[in-house]
Structure formats: C-alpha cells, structure tokens
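Researcher: Last one for today. Full complex below.
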Amino acid sequence: MGLTQISASILAALLVGALTRGAPRTYLLLVLSVLAVYWFQPAIPLRSFDFWIPSLSIALALLTWFVTSQAGAWRSRQNLMGLFVIAGVVTLIDLTRYIFPDPFITTTTPPRFIIVLGFFALTVIAVSAVTIFSRRLALTLSFVILLLLGILLLLKSPILSYQLSVFLRTLTNRPTDTASALDVRWLGFSYIAFRLIHILRDNQLGRLPELSLPEFATYVVFFPSLSAGPIDRAERFSGDLKKNFALTQDETLSAGQRIVIGLFKKFVIADILALIALNDALAVQVRTTGWMWIHLYAYAFQIYFDFSGYTDIAIGIAQLVGIKLPENFASPYTKPNLTQFWNSWHITLTQWIRAYFFNPFNRWIRGYKSLPAWAMLLLGQLATMSLIGLWHGITVNFILWGAWHGLGLFLQNRWSDFSMRRFNTNNARLQSALQVGGILLTFHFVALGWVFFALGEPSLSWHVFLRLFGS
Amino acid sequence: MRKIVFLVVIALSLALASCGSSDTDAPVKAVEKYLNALVAKDADRLPTLVCGEWEEDALIELDSLQAVSARLENVSCSQTGTDGDTALVHCTGNIVLTYDTEDQNIDLSVVTYQVIEEGGDWLVCGKR
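Model: Here's the assembly. Have a good evening.
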C-alpha cells in the first residue's frame, strides 16, 4: 500500500466508523474491502490480469464460504444481499471501462462486460459443482485446502511462477520471451489463503461457528489487513463486526496515534534505513567488516520498522471501524531468547503455523516411539521454521533462513534445560547479565539469519558471512 | 421479479457490449495511453497497451528511455485512416528527453502508429 491508498483507507474508515452502525457497517466494509482488492492490486504486464487476479480472490472466498456453510444458507436474505453486493461491486468496477477514459480503480482497463458475465457464470457453475460434492464427500474441504496450497506453491516458487507466466502468455497470444517469474503478482494471496485454510480446517474439525457471507467475505479481504496482515481469526473478527460499535473521540485519537506511529516507522525510519540496508548489490560491493555489519544492522531494523509500521497502520485503520486486529509485533529485538523472539515477531503467522502445522506435526511424530525426544523436537522445529521460510518464497535461501531458526530454537531449548539446572541463582546481577547477554545474543542470531533472507543466493550469503567475520 | 432482473442484466450487458465497440476515438486514445506509459517508463502497463507481436519492440523502446527523463510536449493525435482492420494514427508534438540539463526532442510526426482491435481493446501494433 502506498501513501495514497493508506490515506484513502483512513478517510473511508473514518466515514464508516463515524456514520454507520450494525448491518450497514458490515455491508459498507464489504464494499470497501472488495473495492480494495482491485485497487491495491499492482499492475502486471498481462492484459486485464489486474482485474482477473482480484476476481479470483473473491471467487475463492465465495467457494470457501459455500463449502463451509450449511446447505441452502445462501438463500437467506442476509447472504443473498451479500452475494448481490459483491457481484454489484465487481460489476461496477468493470463498468468503469465504459465510463472513464482512463482506468481509475484497476491499474489497466478492465475486460469487456460480456467476458465478466462469462466469468460470473463460470464461478456459479464451479461453486455449485464443488458445493454439491461437498455435501456428499467429506474430502471436498481437503480438496479446497489443496487448491489453495497449490496456488501458493505456484506463486511462491520462482520456477513455477515463470512457467505460469509462459502458460498465461501462450494462452493470451503474447510473446513468451518476455515472461518473468514476477509477472503474476497476486496481492495479499498468502494472507487470503491462510485465512481461508483456517476456516476450512476449523470447519472440518467442527470448531467454527456459522458465519454469514457478508461477515465471511469482509473477514477474508478486510481492506486494512489485505496486503500485510495480521492474520486474524474468523470468529474473533465476526464478534467485533456484531458489536454495536460507535466511534468515540478517544477511539479516534488512539487509532490516529497508532496510524501516525505506523506511518513514521514505515515511511521515515524504514525508508531511510532502506538506503543502506543489506542487499545483493551491497553484498558484493562492501569491502570492510565494519560496513558489512552496519548494512546488516540497517537491514534488521529496516525490515522490523517496515513490517511493524504497516501492522500499526492496519491496526489503527481497523480500530476506526470497530475491529480490533490482533497484534503482530511485541518488541521482538528486546527478547532474551529465540523462543520469545518468535512469540513476538509476526505473531499471527507464528500462531497460525503452530495451530495448523507444528501441533499436528508433533502429534504425528510422537507416534514414532523409537525416536528420542530430542530428535522429535529437532524435526518439529526444523520442519516448522522451514515451512515459515517457504511461505516467504520457495528458494534455497528462504529454506536456509528457516533451518537457521529451526536449529536455533532447538539449541536454545536444549540450552534452557541445561542452564536452568546449572545457573539457577538468586543473584540479581548475574540474572541481569544473563538477560542482557541473552538479548544481544538473540538479536545477533536473528540478524545473521537475515543474511539468508535479504539475499538471493546462498553463495552471496556465504560471502557476506565471511566478510562479517573478518575474511 | 426474477425475470425482470434477468432481462435487465441481459439488456445492460448487450448495450454495454455494443457501446464498447462503438468508440471511434478508441485507436487515438490507445496511442495516447501508449505514449504516456512510455514516458512514465511503466514496464507493467506498457505491455497491456500493445499487441503481442509488438510487445518486445515496445519494451525495447521503453528500455532506450531508461537513462533519461522523458515527457510529452504538445502531443495531439488523430486517426488518419485505416488499412484493413488496422487503424492508422498520426501524432504531432514531441517526446522530450532530458539528460542532465540537455534536452533532445523526438518528433512524433514522422511516424504513423498502427492500431488494431483485439478482444474489444485497441492496441498499438507497430509504426510506419
């Protein structure tokens, strides 16, 4: 999100928060969120795909709602109204093609209306078919989860993304020589997919209450958290929507303060640090150990201020409309060990992975009685952190970054067990020395991990490690 | 009620589908959008404004502007005729390239843009 989009989001949220209550607020948030899916989508060099990609986000949300809701739920007045609102907004966005000389919601001209009508028809057929199967076949929910994971795989793997671009270019009669892995940029899909998988999985386990379509769709594409999270939980979000919210002066001031802090973090601190933060070009050019550390520190703080700044902005904007999004950061660089760091860095992603991967994985691996406890722990940490790495992109460096943290968490766990027995003391000085030492050690461990995260190639990361340690 | 809604949707779509193809200025607008994307060096939008056969040429043209700042000056385009399904659009005015403090003008009147309709959109598809 750029400054224009953030400003418009703040203004829209202020108006919704100040002027609407109850059901109208939900519908207005739905309209704004659907609009935002199209407006925030960046331009891509494939004609009309900046319209089709957001449309697919909406279609996937509808598909998930239909397969997780009770049979015939769509016929209720509220859900029909939700369908009408979503279809109406998408239609209006498309009609801008005929009204305005230049595109003004999408970055390029939307496709002809007749083609969009065809898309509507296809969506109805696909959703109906899957929904009919879902009533008869319990595996349908797993199929939708696999579909979402498959799309994530396509988007996160540079090789598969490139092949997807070649395929789409061939399909649309474009030259394949100019295809690139960056062609298909699907705004916020990682977050949308994680929200949908949470709903599908909790529905499978019977843990999720029934949500109306307007609540559901607003949750999935809620405009403040569309591009950078946090990953909220559906039942919590829906609870906030149902509350009789009225925007007070205190609430406005508190939200405003949060937004200003976020803007300062992102557009002042992070953007200044970005000028000297470690990147592929600097990794090759820097000749001295001291400067390499400065670039690494700059990167560590830049990524924190950038991401946590966006989170502050999202939380502040959501607060204006009565939604209390969960916190995503809690001073992570001040934590004395890696476990606490991961409990305070991208908290909602960590919680998601813990609920839907780490815990089930641990339960599964405990079935292998022959494995010693330390091996189970090591495998669990490595698999979980590698998955978090892969979520950022399917590259060797992201896997190495994940493995670095997985190994770190394992070692820290072993060290905690050992040190608790050996250094259990009431000496306050020793305690604070251990605390400070722990903070410094954890920060530097995390910072060194960013060497993998920031750079594109393992060889370049190795070169930076050598430079950092004096070679 | 449902029948009326259905009929309205069908009528609206037919009307819109037909009005989409009746825009006589569309080839001229296509060239203007192309020139604007070119001077903005917008590598994501530019390919969406040209036909597949001319995409690589358009990107080469865009690459040639990377080292300079570019702007349009007094540009005005009009359709001068057709060649089969191809609309011919002629422009006057300049692309002004600035490198350091030095300006260089590219006269647009020396070329005629070929514009074709593809899937309801007019796309720049070459120069003569």
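Residues 2-20 of chain B form the longest helix (19 residues). The beta strands of chain B are 69-83, 86-99, 102-107, 112-118, 121-127.
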